[in-house]
Uridine phosphorylase (Mobiluncus curtisii ATCC 51333), 240 residues
Amino acid sequence: MSTPHIAAEPGDFAPAVLMPGDPKRAEKIAHTLMNDAKLVTDVRSMLGFTGTYRGKPLSVMGSGMGQPSLTIYATELFKFFGVERIIRVGTCGSISAQARVGDTVVAMSAHTDSHINVARFPEITFAPCASWSLLSAAMRAVDELPEADRDRVHVGTVFSEDHFYFKVPGLLERLRAYGTLALEMETAALYGVAAELGREALTVLTVSDSLLDHSQDMTPQERETKFANALTLATAAALC
Ligand code: HPA
């Protein structure tokens, strides 16, 4: 059975899916974590893999960039492929002095300038929220990180923005004043779909750049490789 965007059979996906934005990163994660990863879908080059990690089934699939793209894949995985939990593993731009390039940000909740959840609840302000069981499993895995990195994990709110380049003047300063850690482009939608369909979701991000000081920004190559700590927390959540 195929859906418009995923050509696979229901049993082809594990109950837990790690979801980076970039399909090539999905391929790299699949082959880094698993010896037996098999390609299960490649519609529009949005690669999805399934194998076993620490003896349990695990899938990895790209989401594309932005909330509409992620929403399509997450909805189809949850509704038609038996997926129970999605853990987004991506990069983010820090707007906080605490979250430095290379650090890990775990998103408890996500503000957004998108209409994507307003469409669900025009009459109230919906609160997109991480799954507590996934979030707490990720935090228990902080002990598995190299000792020097254990205080480089930050938990809080992120801003899921629709524009990567256009910034509303003054908005980031206000979000920072309200404790927001970082910018990315998918989490508010992921948490909205999971809530709609009664499933679990979590976002674990690696800080790739800082909007406060661009001198430390990762190169495109570093963005592809420096996410080991995020993967440790994300796999712990996936298999909890
Ligand atoms: N905006 C959105 N996503 C990002 C950014 C940003 O500035 N930096 C890294 N991911």
